[in-house]
Amino acid sequence: MTPRHPLRPESVIVAAGRPAHEPGAPVNAPVVLTATFHAGSARGYARDGQDTTVAFETAMAAAEGAPDGDRDGASIAFSSGMAAAAAVIESLPVGAVVVAPASYYNFHRNLLDEQVRLGRITVRTVDQTDTAAVVAALDGATLAWLELPTNPLLQVLDLPAVATAARARGVRTVVDATVATPLGLRPLDHGADVVMHSATKWIAGHSDLLMGVLSTSDPALAEQLRQRRTLTGAVPGALEGYLALRGLRTLSVRLERACDSTAVLARRLAEHPAVTGVHYLGDPDHPQASLIAQLLTHRGALLSFTTDTLARADAVCSRVGLITHATSIGGVESLIERRGAYAGEAAQGTPAELVRLSVGIEHVEDLWADLAQALA
Ligand SMILES: *Cc1c(COP(=O)(O)O)cnc(C)c1O
């Protein structure tokens, strides 16, 4: 990338991670499908990473404001978001103390709970929105696992305050910013040590792959995480790397459409007689509205809502036609599911009637017509 002026994030994700601008060179990073490389260089085996994945990592590092290292910058791609999280959590030393949110992506809770069951770590659960409680829990801790905003309740924590307090106590902070996307929030700018994304979601954006990515501005930590990936073989395939990079290129336009539609749908849902509550980052009465205004550059393409009865929550999911009844978020196609149906969600206080809607890029009036008939 040879920009002639500092680029805005929407331009960075288009321009970064491309081959050198040379006559006859390809404009896009080629898909390199190989498990091994000819002997005689530092690179021997694809477990260390692939050229295509490196291009994705270079673009992500630029987007996150993590420095570009000599090899693949300070973003490290993984075979899934869970593999990325596991690289952090499963490399904690025995006896580590982890501060974790009371409500967050429930498979991360499963990952931490498993480490507790194995007798390796202890977890202190805190309400992330209670900054004083989070800071109090940091004393003597090893790692704070944070999520901003949370999936599916869209809670927002005071990241600058928590990151500053953690740094003063030598506690490492990791922020899962999947729902914010790299265009909505750059946690490293607010003092976080590591930002994690499930690239499966908005980054890749088409529900056609699993991938995760960690970014850090600490080169030593980046190297540790990269070595962890090599050790466990949690490396993404080249086709996934290619598709994730291709997805990243169009993130800003997909988000713009989806966020606009989400605002409309959130407002109409809130007025619907069968809907008892809506969780949406753009709600002026959101309990963390001022933090949202301070930290997030968009209001997101995710909302969740509760209905008057459990039967209706299930009916909405089964009656939709355009919207797809399936788990996951962040695709161009709108996805809906009753998140409260998961035991792991119930265990962390998600209401049983909570329906999560990931808004895609279909026409907003078609989405509303579909929701309205499903709610009727
Ligand atoms: C989906 C998701 C993950 C897990 O990522 P996978 O790519 O599915 O392994 C982690 N955090 C959040 C917030 C997610 O939505």
From TrEMBL:
Originating species: Jatrophihabitans telluris
PROSITE patterns listed in its UniProt record: CYS_MET_METAB_PP
Family indicated by similarity: Belongs to the trans-sulfuration enzymes family.
Keywords: Pyridoxal phosphate, Transferase
Signal peptide (from-to): none
GO function term, MF aspect, one: transferase activity
Listed InterPro entries: Cys/Met-Metab_PyrdxlP-dep_enz (IPR000277), Cys_met_metab_PP (IPR054542), PyrdxlP-dep_Trfase (IPR015424), PyrdxlP-dep_Trfase_major (IPR015421), PyrdxlP-dep_Trfase_small (IPR015422)
Cofactor: pyridoxal 5'-phosphate
Protein name: PLP-dependent transferase
